[in-house]
């Protein structure tokens, strides 16, 4: 402002001096005119140029008086016109500057608004939400209260867009925005994050009851159908909630965790979910993994690791469990828990199981050629067992080879059987005929009936590691382990205990008459080459320790 005033004063000064210059020019001309006229008149009247002559014409000729006045007139006129001009110019510049300033201010305001708002719904956008959340967190930390972030995503919005067109989709988004605006308090912020995703910032959550009330209000406004292009559309939304300080204290963590909870709510179809650590498996990283898993199969990124099973009766290692891993180019070696469930949900599990069987059989044959006879236990998901192609897949993987001796053990869980006992029985019988052994994995965690198990061609039970790992500190666990061993033996089945992490547990299981042991105490699952090396160098030493 000060600078502006200074510049304006300078301009006025310049203008004034330019007018003064012109006035001075006029003054000089008129002075010259006075002198010339006086001298000419003096010469004409007196016949010569002399001071008395000049004095006399100056005194007697009125025309010269007029000429004498001219320089003063020019001087006064210059001053006057200069001031007027400067004044007018000043107001003109003032007016223009004000107009320009107003234009700039409104332009700035518009740019600011567009950068912080969504053009379709006029709601604050991601940028503004970040900013407000950041401020809310600073205050909340100071005054010690809860701040909530809700991420809301419409279910099946893509279908509306695809079938009714983008115009209808936009209309729907506007209606959703209006309904949500009605629920949100003035102090809170409803924002559109992009696509069909909205976010609500709750600047001050009193307690979880307060939160429940709010969630219920949102659920309620979404219940009524939306009217689009004369049609009535039922639309559900999934919400994920994260709270500060419980789930994070900074903007990015809170938004990301609310998003993870939203994905969980979407997949579990329960409307909303509050973030907790065990929901991390629903994170978007997992979802992108899903897209990549298909390619991983083609790109040879999957590998099998082998964990030895120690046969206590023969004191040998003749079998290993094949456990899948994914050598992900970015995330490194991923354990099966990170992708098996997803593969099951999308149906990719069939291709995956196919690959596991193929790889296992070819590994068995490779080792056989190296004079290293080893059989493998392979995990089969429930959906794959009930897919009756399983025997055909195995026949395909065998190619011209023969499953003459028992090379494969198929590990299935109790849930596989309960889902459809008749179908399971049919498939298992066919597998048995092909020469495969059947083992019930994670035994003790399911609800299968013994009567059912007796009817199936099962030859082995694997006690779930959750009972084995802590059995020396927990009497209940030890009782369960002992009962399963006795029960299996009474049914004519052998028993494997997995999760054996120490020598003392191994020795206790030996006393309890367990047939086979598997666990980190002997070895973690290893890649094929390392497994063979472990067998050559460690197997016997570990077994001799066990027997003393
Ligand atoms: P599972 O069949 O119960 O396999 C045993 C799991 O326990 C393995 O985890 C193994 O590494 C782990 N384990 C073995 N000994 C110990 C021990 O002493 N202590 C502890 N804490 N853990 C031990 P992993 O390899 O991460 O596999 C997890 C699960 O993924 C498996 O549980 C199985 O259900 C599934 N899975 C693995 N490979 C496949 C596959 O090829 N197909 C299918 N459908 N599922 C698979
Ligand atoms: Ca298993
Ligand atoms: Ca298991």
Features:
single chain; 548 residues; alpha/beta; Alpha-Beta Plaits; TIM Barrel; 3 domains; 8-stranded mixed barrel; 5-stranded mixed sheet; 21 helices; 17 strands; binds ligand C2E; binds calcium ion
Topology:
Elements: H1 2-46, H2 51-60, H3 62-116, H4 126-143, E1 146-154, H5 157-164, H6 166-183, E2 189-194, E3 197-205, H7 208-223, E4 226-228, E5 231-233, E6 237-244, H8 251-268, E7 272-274, H9 284-298, E8 302-311, E9 316-328, E10 332-334, H10 340-346, H11 349-369, E11 375-379, H12 382-385, H13 390-398, E12 408-413, H14 414-419, H15 421-434, E13 437-443, H16 450-455, E14 460-463, H17 465-468, H18 475-490, E15 494-498, H19 503-511, E16 516-518, E17 526-527, H20 528-537, H21 539-547
Parallel strand pairs: 6-7, 9-11, 11-12, 12-13, 13-14, 14-15, 15-16
Antiparallel strand pairs: 1-3, 1-6, 2-3, 4-5, 8-9, 8-16, 8-17, 9-10
Bound molecules: ligand C2E and calcium ion (CA) (2 copies).
Could you explain how this protein is built, in words?
With 548 residues, this protein is α/β, with parallel strands linked by helices. The chain has 3 domains: 2-116; 126-279, Reverse transcriptase/Diguanylate cyclase domain (Alpha-Beta Plaits), CATH 3.30.70; 307-322 and 362-547, Alpha-Beta Barrel (TIM Barrel), CATH 3.20.20. The chain has helices at 2-46, 51-60, 62-116, 126-143, 157-164, 166-183, 208-223, 251-268, 284-298, 340-346, 349-369, 382-385, 390-398, 414-419, 421-434, 450-455, 465-468, 475-490, 503-511, 528-537, 539-547; strands at 146-154, 189-194, 197-205, 226-228, 231-233, 237-244, 272-274, 302-311, 316-328, 332-334, 375-379, 408-413, 437-443, 460-463, 494-498, 516-518, 526-527. The strands form 3 sheets. Strands 8-9-11-12-13-14-15-16 form an 8-stranded mixed barrel, surrounded by 5 helices. It has a 5-stranded mixed sheet with strand order 2-3-1-6-7, sandwiched between helices. A two-stranded antiparallel sheet has the order 4-5. Strand 8 (302-311) and strand 9 form a beta hairpin. The termini are far apart. The mean pLDDT is 87. The chain binds ligand C2E and calcium ion (CA) (2 copies). Ligand C2E is lined by residues 307, 323-324, 335-337, 340, 356, 379-381, 441-442, 465, 498-501, 518-520, 525.
